[in-house]
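Is it possible to get an amino acid sequence alongside its tokenized fold?
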Amino acid sequence: MSRRHSSSVRLVAALPLTVLLLALIPAASLARTRDLSHGTLSVERGRGLVVLSFRGGVIGAAVHGRVTISDPVDDGTDAVFSNCDRTRELSDITTLCVGDDIRFRAVGGRWKVRVSGRGINLSAVGRGTVLLDGSGDGVPGAFDGFYSLNGEDALSLPDFPTLLPLAAP
């Protein structure tokens, strides 16, 4: 058998595999599209309370306040805090950080994150619920900040506790 003939046989033998792989690309793309059920939350200059119960990730900061993060499923990831004046382990799964210019991160798992204070800035991606409770625009000089779900227009934090879904629109 000549070299040229041998190369042609290998090419013909590889053709069905190539066609199969090309056929799988749209199916994989469709499966990935269905997985885009995560929602996004952004809070800017918040004053009040933000509570996330979700699977996903959050990064944030508070000019002054308290951040409590619970990791109910020990999946190998830990929450990260910085600039805490005081840190306290409330349980095996819950940590409290109190202080000024607090920074925090909880990524890649199931979390319950509670942030109260002023100057709250955070971004979250995932699925679950979010409770928002601004300090109230009716209080003189107490601007309560903005939030946005899924890239929608920013709104003032609600004046009363409001539970919203964190999911794709």
